[in-house]
Amino acid sequence: MDEIKEVYEKLGGIISKDDFTRKVEEKVEQMSGLCDTRTAAMLVAHDLGVSDNGETQLQKIADINPNCNNVKFIAKIMSVFPAKEFNRNDGTIGRVANIIVADETGSIRLTLWDERADLIKTGEVEIGQNYQIAGYVKEGYSGIEVNIGNNGVFCESDEKVEARIESQQIEDIKNGMGDINIRARILDISDIRTFNKKDGGTGKVANVLIGDRTGKIRVTLWDEMADLTKDLELDDSVEIINGYARENNFNQQVEMQIGNRSSIRKIEEEIEFREEFTPVSDIIPGESYSIAGQVSGIGEIREFNRDDGTVNMVSNIYVSDDTGRIRVALWGDHALLVDQLDIDMSVEIIDGYARSGFNDEIELSAGNRTKIMVR
Q1: Is pLDDT of 59 > 90?
Q2: Is residue 125 domain-resident?
Q3: Does residue 57 form part of some domain?
Q4: Please, which pLDDT band fits residue 13 given cuts at 50, 70 and 90?
Q5: Is residue 59 part of a domain?
Q6: Which of 30, 58, 163, 264 has the most C-beta neighbours closer than 10 Å?
Q7: Are residues 174 and 231 in the same domain?
Q8: Domain of residue 310, CATH code
Q9: 291 and 344 in one domain?
């Protein structure tokens, strides 16, 4: 097929010869024999973004907008999400998967359908690969995305791509925000917990606390994402892609959520973080605070019965700094710390929750989200 070879040589290696030949055959079949092989080859080349004179007509991600129809570009794979199956109205089973790709101008979500989604299931698509992409633009769940069906183009490219993903800082995260990309340091990791879902199934959830130079925020990971905490360690730097923010109903603090449309991975970048301690005199009820000071009072451990019949523990200490003195209620295993403390020991209470206690005295509550450091 010399006519295919002639057209293929204009592509500059952006697709393999076998893949190009297969696409030409599919194009001939699609056109029901209304075009010859050479015309089909030229149509496929055009779909790949190559003009008749051999120039590649590629776009940058920053130029993709809702008014675009079909787009063609080269980008780097940044995140890969698991493929899923679904039932179509005609009774057949479809497959769909999502990935995040980026070039030097920005990032965008790709939705892969059926045979393209199978590439995710087989592990052929990996983070860091560069791909030639052609598909159609539509409004997706979290903004514009590029959809790639069996007639689209999704093939590995030898062209180098400098990828860039816009990242927010923690201080800029507000309740209700979606599509949050952020780089931060791991400050704390919780155990994975299981719970019963309304549909009778079992779910999993875990929390990590992350920080950057502007602040810190708690991140909740659901179901399969919760298992990723097993590979994380304190002080790891991570990148979160496509998280969303919502307010915790208990303490009204904004937290990040990571579900099956999000990803979290370790990165090599060193993320700066420094804990900010609040003077005792500035604490008001209804907020979380970190304080540093000296132990100025120690109470005894008390046990009590919860409403569910289980037994819990609580003890109290007082912590003083240059501005004042505050009572700290230590709950659960934290209560046992009183056996290790002495007056004038230096202590840090990280993320205690301030509330009005006995006689409207402001106190800090140190629960399972609080970290206590004895110096």
Answers
A1: no
A2: yes
A3: no
A4: low
A5: no
A6: 264
A7: yes
A8: 2.40.50.140
A9: yes
**Cα-Cα-Cα-Cα dihedral of 232, 234, 238, 244, to 10°?**
90
315 plus 336 within the same structural domain: yes
What is the residue range of 118's domain? 70-156
Residue 53 included in any domain: no
In a shared domain, residues 296 and 342: yes
Whole-angstrom distance, CA of residue 182 vs CA of residue 170? 8
**How many domains does the structure of the chain reveal?**
4
Do 245 and 174 sit in the same domain of this protein?
yes
Looking at the fold, whether 290 and 258 belong to one and the same domain comes out as: no
CA distance 301 to 232: 34
Which contacts of 367-374 are long-range, i.e. CB under 8 A and separated by 24 or more positions?
A: 367/331, 367/332, 367/334, 368/190, 368/331, 368/332, 369/207, 369/218, 370/334, 371/188, 372/330, 372/334, 372/337, 372/347, 372/348, 373/347, 373/348, 374/337, 374/340, 374/341, 374/345, 374/346, 374/347
Pair 252, 285 in one domain: no
